[in-house]
Amino acid sequence: MAAWYENCSDVKGVLLDISGVLYDSGGDGGIPIPGSIDAVKRLKSSDLQVRFCTNETQITREKLVGKLTKLGFDIEAKEVIAPAPAVCHVIKERGLRPHLLVHPDSLPEYDGIDQSNPNCVVIGDAAEIFSYNNLNTAFPVLMSLEKPVLIALGRGKYYKETDGLKLDVGAYMKALEYSCDCQAEVVGKPSQAFFMSALNHMGVEAKHAIMVGDDIVNDVGGAQKCGMQGLQVRTGKFRPSDENHPEVKPNGYVNNLAQAVDLLLTNRGS
Amino acid sequence: MAAWYENCSDVKGVLLDISGVLYDSGGDGGIPIPGSIDAVKRLKSSDLQVRFCTNETQITREKLVGKLTKLGFDIEAKEVIAPAPAVCHVIKERGLRPHLLVHPDSLPEYDGIDQSNPNCVVIGDAAEIFSYNNLNTAFPVLMSLEKPVLIALGRGKYYKETDGLKLDVGAYMKALEYSCDCQAEVVGKPSQAFFMSALNHMGVEAKHAIMVGDDIVNDVGGAQKCGMQGLQVRTGKFRPSDENHPEVKPNGYVNNLAQAVDLLLTNRGS
């Protein structure tokens, strides 16, 4: 079978995951992954459409972009596709009033959302806010509903910070699903609607797009289900066992984003 | 079909759940469920064997018994079957060295257990100790193992305290199972080995024993799978929807322990 980069002449758009691909996040502001700053610059200098497709929900897009800019990345808020705006759209459309179990730094994303007398729970990557007491505040909201509505901003298992692997929102989503006998609706990767909104934003069809991520299931598998190519980087949360994943077979592995961009730009002749 | 109490002449032993059957626990020490103090007294005055079969892992058995005695119950530590001693047995037998994610008040139960260089995680009902940081300390222990060993002291979804429903150990077990791609081994109810040890302790065969609990799955369903009768009380965490549970059909419902003991003692003629 031909390698992914041998058939990339018709690629028109690239979606990049942020954490684990551009940088490793951490309390210290995080550290860029070697070669990624330059790789983003080269991609954006090409004729390819580029968007950043993240499940980041600890901070607002504006703050995230500020952090990445400080690290040296060329990135603008309008290029970032993130779950919070998507969930606000869903909430308004369905007349929901959420109890927000999210990180305080992300709260400005929910300005103007009615949170009185809640009839659903929205759970994001709340990190330290995932205390026993805060979970036990969200839990009775779900239990009081005849049919609990739990909306999760992603379903990641874990991510890598500079000081190690950390539990992601998916772990806490599973905890509430189990105790409330319900199934969460996921907004964010790997939801098809979320990837489609990123493709629409670029004006590129799935068959002409590549997703580059470190999460074998949520980045690579999710993108492939939408008809895109999915590449896994061997940075961030990548683990060697991912290469024997029982369900997801990426179109290719690359050591890092820099290698992905090298192979893509060289082989499509741009 | 005959009611459970019409066929109870050959009952020789009774297992009682504690929280939600004897009392509702809480930060204030808890409150006895009306009629339960007298019901225990009457049971123990009969010729029936009686044991207290609990998944309580927030405190040592000695402290639990002290708390219940203070509330007015006639109960001794040797009558309490709890998960911590059972898990210590498993740990020693298999040469495991646990990272303990348990409530500090229960730590004396693990005296003498080697906790250096851990090769498994034991998770109990740690309540407030279930912080993001503490979960992220246990998580890498599991991720560092080729085949993660997670031992859960019960798999309850929630329990009732005097100020409301609280997430039980099962929620956090599910969170770690999901993020580590592993399946926990459960010591405590509803594990068959745990119920069998309680029956052995009484010297009573399963077919001559009744379990009384407020947890439809872990008390009633678990006991029935071992061949016992299972009664659900309408106290503690009981919810009306339990009466339409898709999998577990109790041998009977009773309004509370007092009613169960009335019906049992009257109908067996003791």
Can you describe this structure?
The structure is a homodimer of 270-residue chains. In chain A, helix 1 runs parallel beside helix 8. Chain A has 270 residues and is of the alpha/beta class. Chain A is built from 8 helices and 14 strands. Chain A has 2 domains: 122 residues, HAD superfamily/HAD-like (Rossmann fold), CATH 3.40.50.1000; 105 residues, Rossmann fold, CATH 3.40.50. The interface between A and B is medium-sized, with 29 and 30 residues.
Question: Could you give the topology of this structure?
Answer:
The structure is a homodimer of 270-residue chains.
Chain A: E1 13-16, E2 23-24, E3 31-32, H1 36-45, E4 49-53, H2 61-71, E5 80-81, H3 83-94, E6 98-101, E7 120-123, H4 132-143, E8 150-153, E9 158-161, E10 164-167, H5 169-180, E11 185-187, H6 192-202, E12 209-213, H7 216-225, E13 229-233, E14 252-254, H8 257-267
Parallel strand pairs in A: 1-4, 1-12, 4-5, 6-7, 7-8, 8-11, 12-13, 13-14
Antiparallel strand pairs in A: 2-3, 9-10
Helix pairs in contact in A: 1-8
Q: Name the assembly state.
A: homodimer
| SSE topology string of chain A | EEEHEHEHEEHEEEHEHEHEEH
CATH superfamily of the largest domain in chain A: HAD superfamily/HAD-like
Helix content of chain A: 25-40%
Supply the number of structural domains of chain A: 2
Low-pLDDT regions of chain A: none
Strands of the biggest beta sheet of chain A: in what spatial order? 5-4-1-12-13-14
| Spatial gap, N to C terminus of chain A | 24 Å
Annotated CATH architecture of the largest domain in chain A: 3-Layer(aba) Sandwich
Strand percent estimate of chain A: 15-25%
Structural class estimated from helices and strands of chain A: alpha/beta
Radius of gyration of chain A: 18 Å
Number of DSSP helical runs of chain A: 8
CATH third-tier fold name of the largest domain in chain A: Rossmann fold
Q: How many beta-strand segments of chain A?
A: 14
Shape summary of chain A: globular
